[in-house]
Design a protein that fits this description.
Blueprint: H1 2-70, H2 76-86, H3 91-99
Length: 100
């Protein structure tokens, strides 16, 4: 009788261990799926952030170029380069080239 009781207890422990292992496996699968989804979302957000940073850098460079172009008085070398480039153009052509 004692051996039968020990065998039943051992079988019950094994059944409980199997149930726990199955539950752990299921939870691990759920966690791995969630981590994969999170990794994709993080990569998408990083790509968006990088694109915005590049656009911001481009806008900043344009702003700095515009500020430099508006700076007065210009250095004599710059004045000469501008005069050489735009001096022989009529007003409409000069305006088009400056804006283009």
């Amino acid at each position: 009788e004692k051996a039968k009781k020990e065998a039943e207890e051992k079988a019950e422990r094994e059944r409980i261990r199997a149930i726990a292992a199955k539950a752990e496996s299921k939870q691990r699968g759920i966690l791995e799926a969630k981590l994969a989804i999170d990794a994709v979302e993080i990569a998408e957000r990083k790509a968006e952030s990088d694109a915005l940073a590049a656009k911001l850098a481009e806008m900043e460079a344009k702003r700095e170029a515009l500020a430099k172009a508006r700076m007065q008085p210009k250095l004599p070398e710059e004045e000469k380069a501008l005069a050489d480039r735009y001096g022989n153009m009529d007003v409409k052509e000069r305006a088009f080239n400056i804006l283009a």
